[in-house]
User: Fold these one by one.
Assistant:
Number 1:
Amino acid sequence: MSQEALEGAGCAVESDNPVLPFLRQDRLPHIWCPGCGIGTTVNCFARALQDSGMKLDDVAIVSGIGCTGRVAGYMNLDSFHTTHGRAIPFATGLKLANPKLKVVVYSGDGDLSAIGGNHFIHAARRNMDLMVVCVTNHTYGMTGGQTAPTTPQGATQTTMPYGNFENPFNLPFLADACGAVYVARWTVYHVRHLARAMKEGLAKKGFSFIEALAPCPTLYSRRNKLGDGVEQLKYYKAKSTIKNGADTKDVGLTFQGDIIVGKFVDRERPTWLDSMNGHLTKVFPGKFTPYGS
Amino acid sequence: MSDKPATAKVKGTVSVKPEVCKGCAYCIEFCPTKSLEFSQSFNRKGYHYPVLARPETCTGCDLCGVHCPDFAIFGRRLKPGEKA
Ligand code: SF4
Ligand code: SF4
Ligand code: SF4
């Protein structure tokens, strides 16, 4: 495509996209399918980083395995691509070894809530100072579309060919019940809200959880005859209601049903490190030096 | 205080990198002013990419840019006097 032809088509051909400094440009284009919503969440995350004004050296990103697990490898941050489900324990170690870092866990619903489900509930319970972004596409994309703990009842998957009959997780409710201090859900239709939530998560001390609903057109949508990525975003647009402060027990998802989005929880609790420092200072008066504060 | 007439409309333009576009149409579908359309031609991977079909209606809001999963487009405000 020549420059003249592009300009003739009404487009400038500059490449100074404001998100590029936040990405490892030598790794692009990324591997995600056309219309995969993961890329849109990354775009929002890059803008959150930009708006936060944080130095990229002060942020680290950790992913598990899966399509969303690739995110860590595309960000221009110190990043770790860990084993399946283990992003949170790895990030916990990283945070405790270097408490000044902002550590972000960025992974998929299957990785975080199935394989890593136990780590997830305990990190929230301890109020470990991590920001967890969960891209929920209701399936295991990388391995071929198996049923995930977030697959809505009635949706068809390779391992549920007659439709899923299991009760899915309501992840914001789970995070809230375990003690997360910040819980929000948006979709990749709500890009500005999602970017703002990520910016708030970056600034929040403690366990913050942001669920981003995103289409997997290749497996989830195709198997369920839901059309392409645009069709899923149109569904998000039509069926989403913004309810900030909604009771998280009411925000469960159903197959192509209504979606409640918003910031559900924003509260203060001592982090794990604060609790340890406070406790040991009391137990060993004058002898204990608080760590990392 | 701005001395521009109150009716002055915000004008914008987009930049597109056709070679990394995967033709998902998010930008085209969710542009609030419907300023974009698919190109007639294909990129090297065989995808149609967006072109600014109606430059006069683009406000530079960059919603196309935030939606793009492939970082292939972004919108920006035109500087005073700048032509799209
Ligand atoms: S398989 Fe699904 S989740 Fe994975 S890259 Fe493709 S569309 Fe995205
Ligand atoms: S900048 Fe805004 S108005 Fe212009 S093409 Fe993009 S979405 Fe449409
Ligand atoms: S949103 Fe991006 S990848 Fe999709 S059609 Fe537009 S420019 Fe291409």
Number 2:
Amino acid sequence: MADYREMWKELGMDVETHDDLCAVLPQAIGDVFLSQKNRPEKMDYFDFVIAEVHGVRPAELKKFREEGGKVFGTFCTYVPDEIIFAAGGISTGLCAGSQFWVPGGEQVLPPNVCPLIKASVGARLTRTCPFFRLADIYIGETTCDGKKKAYEILGEDVPMYIMDLPQMKRPEDVDKWAGEIKKLLVKAEEVTGNKVTVAALKENIHMINEKRKALMRLYKLRQNPVVPISGTDVLLISQIAYYDDPTRFTQKVNELCDELDERVANGVSVVPEGNKRILVSGTPMAVPNWKMHNIIETSGATVVCEETCTGTRYFENLVDESGETLDELIHALAERYMKINCACFTPNSGRIDDIRRLAKDYKADGIIDIHLKFCTTYDVEEYFVEREMKKDGTPFLEIETDYTDSDTQQLKTRVEAFIEMLS
Amino acid sequence: MYYIGIDIGSTASKVCVLPPEDGKPEEIMRCEVLPTGWSSKVTSASIKEKLEPYLNSDEGSKTVATGYGRISVDYADKVITEISCHARGGYELAGQNCSVIDIGGQDTKFISVRNGKAIDFLMNDKCAAGTGKFIEVMANRLGVDIADMFALAQEGHDNGSPVSISSLCTVFAESEVINYMGEGKDKEDLAAGIIQSVALKVATLVQRRELQDYVILTGGLSQSRFLASLLSNELNAEVHPMDNGRFAGALGAALLAKEKL
Ligand code: SF4
Ligand code: SF4
């Protein structure tokens, strides 16, 4: 990473501790990404963004704030970015995916909380992530119990606004979510000092829809028998989607897709023929959590789709852009977001349908359902996922893991055995 | 052609050589066990020395390595996971489709086997309870070796007075055992309780899956009739002990060397 120490100091970061993180990142990027063979050239943008993760985009956000802009930090795919951008703010994902931050979280959280929550709290409290410093306000949501309660702790250190997410999907729940989105709009107006107009909301709904379409295009390319891009690379792109400038991101993804179109036309694959195709399902993989993709793809299989919040749950379904009033647009947003099938809901049979459909569309040879340790919702739901996939005769492997490397060898054994089983 | 299977486990390494002529498994197996020691690299090198006659023979040889230390066998033609090897080896030992319960030194596996191939598996590798490690730790605590531990446990069981160990975690279970020792409980009864707790833990893992009609025990404890009978009780299905069960992985590896290379 280039030298951003001045900026980090200005942001009140613990620069010395942060240096330890900067020291290991290049090696990790080299091992996980650059060592892959035959990568698309247009990955260079995403490689650059990740290599400069704590520099380039934070510098943009810093400048934006110096010009009076407000940054909103979010933790869940359910929080509608459209509203924040329509109010003239910028939204950035804050979920943390490294063990580096876990001990910091453990200082205030019990040990049996999922690593994503621990790392997110740790990243804030130890002042070692610029994004967590740059957000003027965090937008939380009532999803799982761990996050809900952790937000109370974060709220003592940073302004926190909570959206009350329904836990069921009846029509009245969609209406309720529309009400919550409206409240977020009021809050966003208050924070930024800008009024959200119909035109602005329409424009930003369109902008985020374009981003979704680009990701849909990217994923669709992976349905080909020819695999034009590795799962590990796509995971990186999905992670970057949460914090990059949306318009630039869309453009870069489309440029990459142009190259991938050519690859598919010319039969250029990143993996040997006959490599097994894996659908990954489960909990989000926040940056820089590349652990399972790396294990799977260095064990002779390819990840062809992710049914996760760093995957299809992020971009499937577009928002209807036709509304002419704020209320209509907000309702359209609520309808789209309530189609995300997260295990925090009950019942959540839509997720089983999703996995079934994705397994078919992406011609998966097997499913690996991965959940973070201590994530009760996804862990319990695994029971149904496994039962239903086995009913279909789809080979299935469950993995529970965290951010440490301590289980890498065992995980490798399981994944390799699973792949041997598919052959 | 000699077919060689090398299984580098966490505590013991097993080697199996299939000579060129076909024959019955009992006749053709030349199996050997060595302690794995602190480094699987060193173990794999010393195995190589022992295997020189086969590796360098004019007949030629094909080697498959498996087990936790499989990567360190740099002279292997192929590495295959212990799941696939235990499936193949277990199938050979059982002589039919079967479920394999493998209680290893550091993990416990459950494998459903059809036609020599794993069709499903589960692994408990996060926690020492329900593995050979647990028994080893407890035997140390009681100041006996593993064989004595099983003999004592059988006695305690026959006396009908096992002390049940309620902690699921090895570390806590150890303190629990220390407490009972302090209270003056009999060694036999403690040993019986300890083996019982392993059986229970293994059964809990296995119960998440359907059993095949024939169930066998493999791994270092596979010849224990006592453990097999406790497991049979917990699972309501006959679990067959296997005298050569500890070689299931190495045998499977050797057979796969023959069939796949
Ligand atoms: S898994 Fe559920 S709670 Fe987590 S980000 Fe996704 S939608 Fe939100
Ligand atoms: S992974 Fe599970 S426990 Fe962790 S934040 Fe998401 S829903 Fe909550």
Number 3:
Amino acid sequence: MESRITETHQKLSEDGHESECDKIVMLLDLMIDGEASSEQQAYFNTHIEECVPCFESHQKQKLLKGLVCGHLKRVIVPESLALSIKARIQETV
Amino acid sequence: MSEQTGKQLSKEEKDARFEAELLPVLDPLYNFAYRLTLDEDDANDLVQETYLKAYRFFDYFEQGTNAKAWLFRILKNSFINEFRKKSKQPAKVDYSEVEGYYNSDDVEGEGGVASTTDMRTESVQDLIGDEVASALNALPVDFRTVIILCDLEGFTYEEMAKILDIPIGTVRSRLHRARNSLKEKLEKYAKSMGYNS
Ligand SMILES: [Zn+2]
């Protein structure tokens, strides 16, 4: 069933129409960044309930964001840095 | 607050206020500088320069406004105006420099090899982190910047637009393209590790 839904969507976009799925792609970043309006959220959530490819794109996009915020190591600030900033500021008139 | 209005702060008061409001941003600011320059010394210089500029313009900074966004904006402008000219190296060098950076910490010491085998889960975490870092560092600096600001520092699109001096629409499209390239690089890695995406 789901794959048939996708096929229809893809045909639509090939015809040059903006399919629902295309609109969803445009909302992906807004959704994962918490920037979507409540209408956009409702539209998005209704769509991914019945469209597997869009549901999966959403999962992937969330995963990507999670990789950056959860796994990217923070570098450690050298201890001398705060001290030298304070020192240079005190010299500044 | 109201007592101070109209009065000039003494140097001591100004310094104390400056340190209280702006120094807490040091950690994210240094990390941002490092991700832009990919060099610890350059990051150090860039952060110092940013704080000195901020100090000069501190009278224009309104108390209680977004200190973090303000400092990020100053740093990003300093980076564009001065640092990009200074370091003539194109983005290609980034990759190996950062690999070197991580390797020197983990492998140089005698215990390096042992610790990687000991803590299995931790080293898997490290591997993912290193891979994310490499993929990110291989992106053009404009792409890297929006991903750091959004995903690592949690700025809103509006704040990012102010920090970068670009319209929100440009923030959105740049972020979208940046994520697509990051995804592409990470998918290659996932496949090379035998994961199916
Ligand atoms: Zn869809």
Number 4:
Amino acid sequence: MARAAVQRRLTWLPARLVATSAESPRVHRLVFDVPGWSGHLPGQHVDVRLTAEDGYTAERSYSLASPPEVGELHLLVERLEDGEVSSYLTGELSPGDLIELRGPIGGYFVWSAAADQDDRDTGRRPVQLVAGGAGVSPFTAMLDHHRRRESPTPMQLLYSTRDESEILARGLLGPETTITLTRDVPVGWAGETGRVDAAMLLRCTVKPGDSPRIFVCGPTAFAESTATALVDLGHEPTSIRIERFGESKEPS
Amino acid sequence: MTDPVTLDPIAARRLDGNAAGGILAEVFAVDVTAARSRCAGCGATSMLGAHHVYADAPAMVLRCPSCTGMVLRVGMREGRILLDLSGSRLLEIPMPASSGGGPATEDDGELG
Ligand SMILES: Cc1cc2nc3c(=O)[nH]c(=O)nc-3n(C[C@H](O)[C@H](O)[C@H](O)COP(=O)(O)OP(=O)(O)OC[C@H]3O[C@@H](n4cnc5c(N)ncnc54)[C@H](O)[C@@H]3O)c2cc1C
Ligand SMILES: [Zn+2]
């Protein structure tokens, strides 16, 4: 059960790729079968370890894009130019190949229906998610889990992406989601356009007066500018949790 | 107006305490990203998940979100894990039974 997931020392587990597909021009959805997986909470991540024939290893973190209710683990991996691990995962790894995973990791950037039930005071507060690019990955786990559990917690997503072709997890996004396109806007686009800023946050996210729990995820520059704008709007700094993905040459 | 491209190269690669959760889980039997640490430098308390992490150095370096002082360093060398906790005066780790697998408390955010 998910709760046990944060109670034991973690070790590296072999993970077999069962499927890989282009979710967008730059992002692949990788599906892994991990025997002995202990379950996870939406928002948690795994560390991926690649080992070359000469013993050289590289480790990177990836958010779990699938909810605990799904047996396989899904990752949404964005291919960065010259990216050591992401270019291997999206370009070389084929179904049947084995890599190593360590996880689930993190008790901080998580949301679950059960935790809201256990803690009614916190659970009453709405949840606002704000994603830039592949930063939507942990939120797809949260939204999917929210839906499967029919959670009463109000949940909204503001999702910034470069153009329509780069929208990830399309099938999962419903009326709770506002999308803003930062680069190419197709004719007839009815959603938001341009980068996330204070005015857009004011228009499209839960107001400070409703004391939302806010999760922000994406490239470091995106996450920090968004968090700063949220505080400027009057949100409690302590109600904002951030997951920085690191540098991205192409801000979302 | 927020401009997402004004961070210097080091700041742009900054991560959160979460990013160190994996290697710390090799040491601790419980998740410590939701643990609260009191900074030995300035005395501020915040969850490790809300600390800043710089992962480019040979070790992962966690810095205090209030004063940017070094709180914790963790790295691997020759099959050993090296853990330097000298920047944390007190580490308060929720027991699994009371942590409930979710965020522990609410007065623990990122920028506080
Ligand atoms: C908790 C967490 C969760 C994450 N979840 C996801 C996820 O779900 N999906 C996802 O796609 N990513 C995620 N990331 C990011 C991921 O961990 C990797 O950082 C990312 O895939 C890039 O790794 P890489 O090996 O491909 O690139 P790297 O080889 O690490 O390079 C990254 C970029 O930095 C440049 N670079 C490399 N070294 C330097 C240097 N010394 N100075 C300046 N520039 C340099 C490279 O040219 C490249 O553009 C997550 C990160 C964290 C911390
Ligand atoms: Zn400090």
